[in-house]
Model the fold of this input.
Amino acid sequence: MAASWDVIVIGAGMAGLSAAQQLHAAGRRVLVLEKSRGIGGRMATRRDETGQWDHGAQYFTARSAAFRRQVAIWLRANLIGRWHAPIYAWDGQNLSISSPQQRFVGTPKMNAPLGAIAATLDVKLSVQVTAIEATAQGWQVNAGEQIWQAPQLVLALPAPQAAALIPVAHPMQAAAENIPMSPCWAVMLSSEHAINLPFAGAFINDGAISWLAHNSSKPGRSGQHWLLHASVAWSQAHLEDSADEVIALLIQAFNRLLARWGQAEPHWQHAGAHRWRFAQGSSTQAVVQSAETGLVLAGDWLAGGRIEGAYLSGIDAANALLAATAGQQRNQS
Ligand SMILES: Cc1cc2nc3c(=O)[nH]c(=O)nc-3n(C[C@H](O)[C@H](O)[C@H](O)COP(=O)(O)OP(=O)(O)OC[C@H]3O[C@@H](n4cnc5c(N)ncnc54)[C@H](O)[C@@H]3O)c2cc1C
Done:
C-alpha cells in the first residue's frame, strides 16, 4: 500500500538530515529512508566490546555563518565537543605542527548531532531504495516490494549512488554522473599500552597511510584506540583486497612510522577494517537544481566534499524545494 508524504528524503547522512530538518521546520511532512541500520552515513563510529573508533569522518570545521550557528546549538546541547589535541603533519622526514583550527567531533560518537535531528523526524532504517520513478503526482520510491509516494524528493547520496537511481532523461542525472568519488580503507587498532607520540592526529604525506589518529584523545572517548586511513592511491590499488590483507599491510606501515619516531612496536590487541567505496569527492562545477521537477540532490560532493558542505547542500536542496512550492502556489492563485 502506497503512503503519502510531502517530501521523501533518501539518505540519513548529514546532507539528508539537514535537508529534512529544514523541510520539517517549514511544516512539511517528511519521510527519511536509509539503507543502513543506523543514521549518520560517513559520520560513523564503530563500537565493539574492545572500544570505539570513528572510522569515517574524523572531525569537522565550521567556516560559514549558517553552519557555525548550527554548531553553536550542538555545542550547547553537548552533542558535539571541541577536539583540542595537537594535529601534526609528516612529510617523510619531519613532523611539524599543522595549522591550528577549531575541530569538532560528535560526542560520544560521531553521529550524535544527527541522532538529535533524526529523533524529531520519521526515519525508516534498513530501507534500501532500488528505484525512483516520476509519476503524475510527483515521485514514486521503491524499495523492493515497498512503495512510497510524494510530490517532492531529495536524493542525499554520494554522487555514484544518486546517479544510479535518477532516471536517465532527468536533468539532474548528468550532474551526478561521472563525479569521481575516491575510496578509503580504514583500519581500527587498539594497543595494550599507551603510545607516546606528540600528536593526537597526523596527516601522513608519504606512503600507504594518509591519516592516523589517537581516537581515544577525542572528547567522550577513552582507551588506547588508533585509527588509520589509507591514501586514495593505496586504497584504489587495494580496493578488492580482503580486510585481513589490508590490516596486515597497514599495521606494517604504521609500525615502520613508529620506528622512525623512536617508538617500540606495540602489541596490537584488536584490529578491524572498513572499506569506504565512496569516501570523498566533489563536483568541480556548481550544480543548478531543477526543483520544478520535484527532485533535488544533496550531498557533500555538491559543496566541497566535507561535513560542512554536506550540511549546506542539504539546506540548499530544502530551500530549492520550498521555493518551487511557493512558486507553484503563486501561479495557482
Ligand atoms: C574515511 C573518511 C574520512 C573523512 N574525513 C572527513 C573529515 O575529517 N572531515 C570532514 O568534514 N569530512 C570528512 N569526510 C567526509 C564526510 O564524512 C562527508 O562529507 C559527509 O559525512 C557526507 O555526508 P552526506 O550526507 O553527503 O553523505 P553520507 O554520509 O554518505 O550519507 C548518505 C546516506 O545515504 C545512504 N544510502 C545510500 N544509498 C542508499 C539507498 N539506495 N537507499 C537508502 N539509503 C541509501 C547511506 O547509507 C548513507 O547513510 C570523510 C569521509 C570518509 C569516508
User: Anything to note?
Assistant: DSSP finds eight helices and 20 strands in the chain. The chain has two domains: 3-43+112-178+285-332, 48-110+182-280.
